[in-house]
């Protein structure tokens, strides 16, 4: 299925069957631990949201600002699906109203991360409960995301005011995860313009953000006047020519999701190529360093990138034929990463703090969230657990 010229052979690791009793025991422990932490945080957070990352083990509380608040709401939706406990649904629905106020007032919405924000809050609410207000809020967010599209360059600008010269024409690998909001909006409205923009952007991401060896740029600049490609660099990776681990994980998951909406085999093939590159650069415990170029060093791990990759690998595997041997490999490697996260990175009762998944890195050079829990790592760990223990219909 894969282009053998560009495919690296997956390392022969963890190819023997797992101990099913051990797996069930660990996943049950994870489920219990998750609900314990979410229950405690539900009481502690009140009407506030956790900040992007923990500080000394604890999330600072914030208003509904920045790009990460929906990861808490998403955890609540997942907790409701896992347990059926109404307290989670009630809390999540209350937060949906906060997202409605945010998009109506255009408060801190100058970002492509409207996809993260409104998929895990409002699209999830619509899918799970038929909440028509939530649907309307998500469609407003899709309209706002469309405004960031540069028609000449065929990309959605990542950050900043559209008049800001320094950000003009910058796309980043993370945006692959924002595109499902646009695909969903076309499904809901019957208007193809949303999906057309998503397809245009993901094709440019495939062309320019993915290097010939299947590593990825974190960011890439396009000329918004001529549409010409300019150059790639990194914002959060080790070096411009290295491979930021979380970005590679975004790519694995995001291209697989674009395949789910478009049926274009290019995207599932790209997801697999990125997955191979990622898996072949993991340390012995299967949890990535914060940059994949740092394999063999004592560099910090990024548990959040690992959790995203588990979800991406499971999504990728779902779209491969049952007879494809790579399908079982991706499923088994995803499970192996998840078990390592559960045994070594999941917070324990003795730990001081209110995060879920320890040892993540947000932005090393910026000194943000280094060796701390982070809100997206917590969310994707819970999503991964949902994928491994339930029949789950995606929010994305």
Q: Would you mind describing this structure in some detail?
A:
With 396 residues, this protein is mostly helical. The protein has one domain: Glycosyltransferase, CATH 1.50.10. 51% of the residues lie in helices and 7% in strands. It is built from 12 helices and 9 strands. The strands form 4 sheets. The protein has a 3-stranded antiparallel β-sheet with strand order 5-6-7, with helices on one face. Strands 1-2 form a two-stranded antiparallel sheet. A two-stranded antiparallel sheet has the order 3-4. The longest helix has 26 residues.
Question: How is the secondary structure organized here?
Answer:
Layout: H1 20-45, E1 49-50, E2 61-62, H2 70-83, H3 86-104, H4 114-129, H5 132-146, E3 149-150, E4 155-156, E5 170-172, H6 179-189, H7 193-209, E6 219-222, E7 229-233, H8 245-262, H9 265-279, H10 303-318, H11 325-344, E8 360-363, E9 368-372, H12 375-389
Antiparallel strand pairs: 1-2, 3-4, 5-6, 6-7, 8-9
Helix pairs in contact: 1-12, 2-3, 2-4, 2-12, 3-4, 3-5, 4-5, 4-6, 6-7, 8-9, 8-10, 9-10, 10-11, 10-12
